Amino acid sequence: MALRVHRAGILSTLQDLGRYGYQRFGVPVGGVMDEYSHRLANLLVGNLEHEATLEITLAGPRLEFTQDTLIGICGGDFAPSLEGKNVPAARPVLLSKGSVVDFGTCRLGCRAYLAVAGGFEVPLVMGSKSTYLRGGFGGFEGRALRRGDLIPIGEAGRESYPGLRRQLDAGARCAYPRWSVNANSAFLAHGHHRIHFVPGRHWDLLSEDSQQQFGGVQYRIAPDSDRMGYRLEGPRLSLKEPIEILSEAVTFGSIQVPPDGRPIVLMANRQTTGGYPRIGEVSTVDLPLLAQLPPGDTVHFEPITHEDSQRLYLQRDRELGIMREALRMRMKQ
Hints:
single chain, seven-stranded mixed β-barrel, Cyclophilin, elongated, six-stranded antiparallel beta sheet
């Protein structure tokens, strides 16, 4: 079984939940930008949640499946189609041998995640299948997909969704249920987005005016944003006084203020350490939403306590757990 690439799209890479345990050697964690959509796509096809998915950015690929394949698509809306007919997202889809799925330009959000039952058979590099483009390793040959690539797909376990198989045996090109899961597209339906953050250890280094500005104005995601970090356009932030800070560990969601005063939110491919003041951390529950916002979208940062941030994350995790159990039952139908 394999996935043949007829068109690669702007940036399509294999990503999983990241490469942990190597930051002390300067190796970034990397991994998916939108963990929620990634995990949900894997659950739809019966994979473990850490299995690699294909992360599709802004404009999608054209992909051929060389054998009958169960897929799940979650995240941004790329209007995937098969022979001119819609391929639905947020539900399991069984494709027949030779199916060619076309992903268009993203209409909502900016990243989609394609999971295949059995996962993508690429080597583990330092315990992960994630592609690290700057290092040239991981994923498929350490790079984004190109036209002509043939990516092996692993053998799935016991076949799921026998009802879909019956539809395919009856002559359907693709089969999918009427139900769908609660994907994050509802969070993206607004042009302006609220992002919670926990004030960090250097928050008090900001001037009082800058503290009020950061929590009270809109910021626009700059065009030079990428998987490493989102630059924010808006009021420039200033410190109470100049200060030298030793480099220290950073994480996905760290909000830094460089000397030019333009805040940067570090994303999945962030560096391992940073020496700019860290004024806060984006709440983990909001990272998938932030990851789905393309350059030009606006955000409003709202402070939140560490306890409330944990509560919101655990609530989201419980919701995902309910969907996990429901899908296990659905797979038998």
